[in-house]
Design a protein that fits this description.
heterodimer; A: about 140 residues; mainly alpha; Cytochrome Bc1 Complex, Chain D, domain 2; two-stranded antiparallel sheet; two-stranded antiparallel ribbon; 4 strands; about 55% helix; about 5% strand; B: about 180 residues; about 40% helix; about 0% strand; globular
């Protein structure tokens, strides 16, 4: 009985985490893991840490204005959003409602670089990128 | 209305003539973007401006400062930056057959390198009769930078007067005639 429920638990976990997983994200996570492994012993990416980064507020050095990932992507990743300056529509970020999300490595790299620099004032670390992708992917 | 039906009739009777007219003779037809990479990369935050709207020197300068692009970060990998610069230069106002491009250049001093289309004198002149409340104070337009908000055919390079529709306003002509 015990073994059975444990088996069910583990397999649901596997299933649920792979539902929206894409090859692109898997490959990037592996890359970040390798970077981190050379510096620390244990590496793990969590949606919780990613969520904290997603909502974290950063003050822009020049304007003093608060910047967050949600400035353009909104609080609910399943919603359509608008670019904060240009007003252009940004389709939902959540892969559960927009299957085109997180499918192209080059695109993810490009936007993470731009958006981290704009929001945080610097590039994100491998840990931060791994966490935030894990978070977005789970939406 | 009458003119429209005559036009439709003409198009039906002389399709070849109508086609010809829209592709070359029209002042307000701007060569459309046919480069997918450009549409993807330069159309993700705003309407993808036609390359013939700025001269070579402007595109070159703009493409070298993408990390601080009007306060946004639009950085590209070096290879893509080069490919897109090549595309912009080859189709720039200097090299384009578009009549509007020639007019833009005419009012521009050779030593000026505008990074915005919307500050070029001829452009400003063409848009200076539009009331402020229809542009900056209009949340649906925000600024003249968003060409496609008013020029409903902007994506295909059609800037003709009868395809202009300012959000929240009646057709331009109706608006004018009521004053």
């Amino acid at each position: 009985m015990k073994i059975n429920s444990e088996f069910i638990f583990v397999s649901t976990l596997l299933l649920s985490s792979s539902v929206y997983a894409t090859e692109a994200v898997d490959e990037l996570l592996e890359e970040y893991q390798q970077v981190l492994q050379s510096e620390q012993e244990e590496v793990s990416f969590t949606a919780e840490a990613g969520e904290i980064l997603w909502f974290q507020e950063f003050a822009d050095e020049k304007s003093g204005k608060i910047r967050q990932c949600t400035t353009c992507h909104t609080d609910d990743l399943r919603n359509e959003a608008k670019h904060t300056r240009t007003g252009k529509l940004i389709k939902p970020m959540a892969p559960s409602v927009n299957e085109e999300r997180l499918t192209e490595i080059k695109n993810i790299r490009k936007w993470l670089k731009r958006n981290c620099k704009w929001t945080l004032g610097r590039e994100c670390s491998a840990q931060e990128k791994g966490d935030v992708l894990t978070f977005i992917q789970a939406q | 209305m009458k003119i429209l039906s005559i036009l439709i009739l003409v198009c039906m009777v002389f399709p070849a003539y109508a086609d010809d007219d829209s592709s070359s003779g029209d002042d307000n037809q701007i060569t459309a973007v046919d480069n997918k990479q450009y549409l993807n990369e330069c159309g993700s935050c705003h309407f993808a401006y036609q390359p013939s709207l700025l001269p070579i020197r402007s595109w070159k300068k703009l493409m070298l400062q993408l990390a601080d692009h009007f306060g946004d970060n639009a950085e590209l990998a070096a290879e893509e930056q080069k490919q897109l610069t090549d595309y912009l230069v080859a189709n720039s106002a200097d090299l384009s057959p578009d009549k509007f491009a020639k007019k833009l250049l005419q009012g521009l001093a050779k030593d000026e390198t505008p990074l915005r289309i919307t500050i070029i004198p001829y452009f400003v002149h063409e848009h200076d009769k539009i009331p402020k409340k229809a542009i900056g104070d209009n949340p649906e337009v925000k600024s003249l930078s968003y060409c496609n908000k008013c020029h409903t055919g902007a994506e295909t390079g059609n800037y003709s007067e009868n395809s202009i529709k300012i959000p929240g306003y009646e057709r331009l002509n109706d608006d004018n005639s009521s004053h």
